[in-house]
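Re-running Glutamate carboxypeptidase to confirm reproducibility after the cluster update. Everything else is unchanged from the original entry.
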Amino acid sequence: MSQTATYAQSYLASFQSYQQEYFQRLETLVNIDSGTGQIEGVNRIMDTLQQWLAEHDFSVSLHESAGYGNNLLARRKGKGQRRILIMGHVDTVYPAGAVQDQPFAMRDGVAIGPGVLDMKSGVMLGIYAVRALIEAGFDQYGELVLLFNNDEEVGSPGSIPLIREIAHEIDYALVLEPAGKQTSLTHSRKGTDKYVLEVRGISAHSGVEPYKGRSAVIELAHKILAIQNLHSIFPSVTFNITKLDSTEPLNVIPDMARCSISVRSFSRHGLDAASAALQKIASTSNVPDTITTLTRNPGRHPYEPTAAVQRLVELARLEGEALGIELKAEPKGGVSDANILMDAGVPTLDTLGPVGGGMHNLDREHMQVSSFAVRGPLLAGLIQRLCLHE
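Result of re-run:
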């Protein structure tokens, strides 16, 4: 095929033939509780995936991370040069027992169940995309690498070392987070910082001598309002204040109050500017004799739309055109493992999974059944294009 040839169309028939088995296997995964930290369920899923990948001559290894269970790494060597990573996660946000409350089901063109969209259907889509390539006899890749982790929903704390290790061995990464519509791709995501803001005041009896006290709660309230006002100064940065607590006795002026703050920005500059503004708020006081400390806990760095990422978008758009869809890459406020891969220097394209909605809501989460037959060929075609033409 020529430079302008597209490949996705050649996989349409394969994905039509896979559909029944795909949803049967998806049901198996969805009907296993695998909320982050539910080790038994996570490991059952990884064992099942290991069996399915072995059917296609992948070398599979399991890598334990304490408190979360196993991560799965699968490799298959080819005859080409490009090393492609396909990545997803098997953990969900749901508590134990979610499967009993809402087991897998298909009706009215959608599949439902805990984690069906975010992102067990994406994990399965990745497996079927590489299966389609293998069964078509395509082997012009250096290596296909599949990495499925177990703790993405809480920031991938246990799997980050493994992700970064693999990042040094690959050329491109494709992340299987779900799409909100058939035309969606993601070329950038906000990065995150987490803060704890703690105020120390002076306690006193609230009835007998309140004037001797210095309320940490009142000082924190002033600071919360000042932080909320930062949205007008940094319109592209979000400041979300959560988890308030203080000393509790009703007859005592509180001498401690704290809150947590989640800050998100599409750029590192935005995160650093936000940090400087928060430090300034922490360094001043409205209530005399109160002392404030601010602790910054860096999270995932922003995933920014570099030239290499934009090139991946264009390659995906070529494959989308062959399927009659006009793909559009957009920024997302939420983070994913794409943030980690980009920070490690790997050109990464995100939101290549199936289409649906209602994520993180057990009553609403769903996958559009019809999206499998489109997003699957798109992914397979993109992998082939990356190997032959990039």
